[in-house]
Each structure stands twice: as structure tokens, then as C-alpha cells.
Amino acid sequence: MATTIVPVQFTEPELKLLQTLVYQECGMFFDERRAHFLQDRLQRRLKACQIDSFYNYYQLLTSREGKHEIAALLENLTVNETSFFRNRPQLDLFQKKVLEELLHRKQERRDWTLKVWSAGCSTGQEPYTMAVMVCDALAYYYLRNPLPFEMPTPKPLIPPPWKVEILASDISYSVLRAAQEGIYPESHMEPVDYPCRLRYFERVGDRYAVKKALKELVHFDFHNLKTEYLPQRNDVIFCRNVMIYFDEAEQKRLIEKFYRGLNPDGYLLVGHAESLLGLTSRFRMIHENNGTAYQRIEVPS
Length: 301
Ligand SMILES: C[S@@+](CC[C@H](N)C(=O)[O-])C[C@H]1O[C@@H](n2cnc3c(N)ncnc32)[C@H](O)[C@@H]1O
Fold this sequence. Notes:
This protein is of the alpha/beta class.
């Protein structure tokens, strides 16, 4: 006879303990509205670990061997929804204003590096979108302002001497693996128009794979945004639809870390439902045609 597994019901103080632990580990804050979700995901982990009490599970999480389980729990708690070319008005602003200004400013200084960081990149659609947009922006920029160097043939995606790095990071190893693979079903490709598909993707069976040349521009890495040490010297940081899961104190801390992680006059782009309003005075808002970006304000020394 099959045995029925009765899911463990957590008491309010037990949920509070786990809520605090998750907050301390990654900054995600589960208030009463999201307590159900937390409860459901915890039950899944208990089942996977074949543990039948809160006490035993908490002991595992806080033990020396518990690091793996904490990572597995966090993987289960993250929301990984994403898409190519998400929030078009903001991306238009990124391409037409932010990149245009950066390319112009950098070329004047003979600084041929560009670093864009997708913080909380999920399954990779965001950083690959960034890579496509940077390649197109560079091509369009040099159509109008010929480079003072000989262009090799066939034309590379990134005209020398430019060096472009798109860094993409997440707290979830499983989404990072999918992102690194860079192969997407037709259903994910709807926002990608045909010229873009032709230029940057190839068909693999019934799916689309990111072409090698574009893939080489993107570097994937694990970074927990809760930690102090985060990537530095970025020209642009995209952190979209991540802070929405943090509480105000954690959002403020993260924005401060992003400020330090940006080059002077660098840009921060957050999600459609997110804003820096009331959280910092160290960025100025740029808002055009429904797109928003924030630029680092430099304090005269
Ligand atoms: C909703 S997705 C957003 C993906 C993409 N930025 C976009 O807007 O389409 C949020 C991502 O943030 C990641 N995330 C959540 N907390 C994080 C943390 N503390 N450190 C790094 N990544 C985190 C999740 O794993 C998830 O992949």
C-alpha cells in the first residue's frame, strides 16, 4: 500500500525564522503576502531531503554541511521570469541615449572598453539582448563616424580596438547553466525580430542557439547581490526585476553598492515596477518616451 506523505505545516514563528535566514542569505524578503509561496517551496525542499520536521530541516540549514541545502532552497525561492527585449521603451533609451553618449565620451578619451553588467540575469535573455544592442549600436555609430582605424574583413561584431564585456550573474546555478547554454525554444523568440534572429542565432532542431561570436561577449558568473564584494568598473548596470523582492533597507544597500560599482557617470537601469525614488540622491533620473535610466552623480572633490 502506498504511503501518503503529509506535508509539514509550519507555525508562524517557524516561518519567521526561515524568513530571517533567507533574508540574511540573499536579501529576498518574504512578507505575509508571500508567506504561502515560502511555505510551499519549503515543503518541496523537505520532501526532496526526506525530512519530516521543521526542527530537523532548520538544523540541516544551519549546520556546516547545510551550505548546499541553502543554495538549493534559494534556487527554489527565486522567480526567474524573463524575456528577450524586455521593456522596449527602456531599451530604446539605453541604445539611443545611454550607449550613444558612452561611445562618444569614450572615443574622445581613447578609452575603448565597455562593460555592461546584467545583475540577476536569469536564463540569459537579458544579457544576450544587451550584447545584441551593443553590437548594433557600435555598428550604427561607426556607420556615421568612421573609425580612425582599418576595419578587418569580414567585419567582426566588435570593431577593433573596442573591447566589450557583458557580465551576467545570478544567485541560481540552474539558471546560469541554461543561460550559458544559450538555446531557446521558438516560444521564447517572439520578441526577437527576423533580422536579429538571422544575424545572431542559428537553428538547432526546433530551437534557436545564440551564435558563437555573440556568446563570446557574455561572461556568466555566480554573484549573490547580498554580499559586499560585487563586480566593479561597470559602465552600465542592469538590475531589473530583482530589487522588487528585497525590502527597502536591502534595496538602499544594493543601490549604494551599485553606485560604487559604476564608473564615473555610469548608468543604472532597474525594472519597470522599480524606482530609485526616495532610496538615494546619488543618481539623476533620465526619463524619455516611457523609458527610464539613472546616471551616477559625481560629487566634486
Ligand atoms: C525575475 S528574474 C529577472 C531577470 C531579468 N533581470 C529580467 O528582468 O528579465 C530575477 C532574477 O534575480 C535573481 N536573484 C534574486 N535574488 C538574487 C540575489 N540575491 N543575488 C543575485 N541574483 C538574485 C533570481 O535568481 C532571478 O534569476
